[in-house]
Amino acid sequence: MAPTLTPLRDASLDELMAAASPPEVWELMPWPLGRDREAMEAYLATAFADEDAETAIPFAVRLEGKLVGSTRYHAIDRAHRKAEIGYTWYHPSHWRTGLNRAVKISMLDRGFGEMGLHRIYFQIDKRNERSQRAVAALGAVREAELREDRILQDGYLRTTVVYGLLAREWPENRERLMTRWEFLTK
């Protein structure tokens, strides 16, 4: 079953809250997300403001119609043909299932194809080793470590690790991924 990316604006607050309610979804995030409706509404307001400014394209991630998470292109810079893929989260029942890999491949295809991007990057909490492994497996290169660059909701000074992938690197990485995970093509 392949994931579907739909506009985040079409998602209901209730289905977003259900998917984001487990605390482990947002414990490493710089925002509380699923803590309560007010936090989710603030998260959505930011996503929609960025979308209106044409610096983000936020998505709901669905499996067989059910909302299981969200992701987006963020910090879109058309002049320099680059964007971040971020604000990604999934209900824990979908962690380590291949969902994230399938979503990222779809987004990289669109970013380097239809959107004409030259560079796509990821900014990850240094403590989130699972996410670092996931983007490295896509072929992204660890480029930088930004020491204590964000203050999280609990006051923790987060160190961010930056990974990047260039358009010219994607075809070879995509081929490797598709050969290894043939189920993504079905």
What does this structure look like?
The protein has 186 residues and is of the alpha+beta class. It has one domain (4-185): Aminopeptidase (3-Layer(aba) Sandwich), CATH 3.40.630.30. The chain has helices spanning 13-20, 23-26, 37-52, 99-112, 129-137, 170-180, and strands spanning 4-7, 57-63, 66-77, 82-90, 119-125, 141-151, 157-166. Strands 1-2-3-4-5-7-6 form a seven-stranded mixed beta sheet, with helices on both faces. The longest helix is centred in the first third of the chain and has 16 residues, at 37-52. The termini are close together.
Architecture blueprint of SSEs:
Layout: E1 4-7, H1 13-20, H2 23-26, H3 37-52, E2 57-63, E3 66-77, E4 82-90, H4 99-112, E5 119-125, H5 129-137, E6 141-151, E7 157-166, H6 170-180
Parallel strand pairs: 4-5
Antiparallel strand pairs: 1-2, 2-3, 3-4, 5-7, 6-7
Taken as a percent bin, the fraction of beta residues is 25-35%
Report the structural category.
alpha+beta
Poorly predicted runs are none
Please name the CATH architecture.
3-Layer(aba) Sandwich
CATH class: Alpha Beta
Taking strands numbered 1, 2, ... along the chain, how are they ordered across the largest sheet?
1-2-3-4-5-7-6
Number of domains: 1
| DSSP strand count | 7
Query: What percentage of residues falls in helices of 4 or more residues?
Result: 25-40%
Summarize this structure briefly.
The chain is of the alpha+beta class.
List the main descriptive attributes of the protein structure presented here:
globular; 7-stranded mixed beta sheet; alpha+beta; 186 residues; Aminopeptidase; 6 helices
